[in-house]
Amino acid sequence: MDFTAQIRSALQSQSFPTPSINPETPEAVLHKDVPCQVLDVENLSLSRWEQVEELEAVARGEQTTGRRVVRLVSAEEPEYDNLDEGSGAGAAGGGGRATQQMQQQMQQRRNATHRIVLQDFKGQKVYAMELRRIERIGIGSTNVGEKIMLKKGTVIARGTVLLEPDKCVLLGGKIDTWQRAWLEGRMARLKEAVEGERQ
């Protein structure tokens, strides 16, 4: 057997078993590790309009964390330093509200439940849902085209993969053209759905 045939046979065994992803199968367990990639991410704990706002914030680059805001101080304000940590008395007026809003968003992100669409190497698509929170899964942190390894023992119930932190590994990666198309298409679909609900 040549090298390509060995790779193909190895990959054949590393895809979703067809009966297990059938919605009529009550429950199945993966017997081998299965590599797959992310095609879609949805935050189920937010309304559609909140999802639109979240996607717009990601597009503006507002979802990044761990950065400090540096304010330029005018000569008339010597009592303020030029570093705004966003807490305490130095955060006057809008700064306090912004800090509160940011803390609320962080809490929402910690309590969020996400549904993602996964695709194996054969092109089979399946929904996956967080059974327990996985920090690296979320809008703005999980990219379209990112690779995930579902470990042996992962449960698939009614055609949906149940994600747990100890049963999957996010390997990273991104396909830029897919990510851009997903972001634009997702925002348009959500706005269309919101408009449809208002009428």
Give the gist of this structure.
This protein has 199 residues and is of the alpha+beta class. The chain contains four helices and ten strands.
- Estimated radius of gyration: 22 Å
Which secondary-structure class do the elements indicate? alpha+beta
Overall shape: elongated
CATH fold-level assignment: OB fold (Dihydrolipoamide Acetyltransferase, E2P)
CATH A-level architecture: Beta Barrel
Strands side by side in the biggest sheet: 1-8-9-6-5-2-7-10
Mean pLDDT metric = 78
Q: Got a strand count?
A: 10
Q: Give a quick account of the main beta sheet: strands, pairing sense, barrel closure.
A: 8 strands, mixed
**Secondary structure: helix percent:** 25-40%
The domain tally reads 1
The total of helices stands at 4
CATH level-1 class? Mainly Beta
CA(first)-CA(last) distance: 62 Å
Q: Quick one: CATH superfamily? A: RecQ-mediated genome instability protein Rmi1, C-terminal domain
- Beta-strand percent range: 15-25%
pLDDT under 50 segments (min length 5)? 80-92
How would you describe this protein?
It comes from Colletotrichum liriopes. Residues 80-103 are annotated as: Disordered. Pfam families: RMI1_N_C (PF08585). Residues 25-186 form the RecQ mediated genome instability protein 1 OB-fold domain. This protein is of the alpha+beta class and 199 residues long. The chain has helices spanning 3-12, 48-60, 94-111, 176-198; strands spanning 28-29, 34-43, 69-70, 83-84, 114-119, 125-130, 147-150, 155-157, 160-163, 168-172. Strand 5 (114-119) and strand 6 (125-130) form a beta hairpin. The N and C termini lie far apart (62 Å).
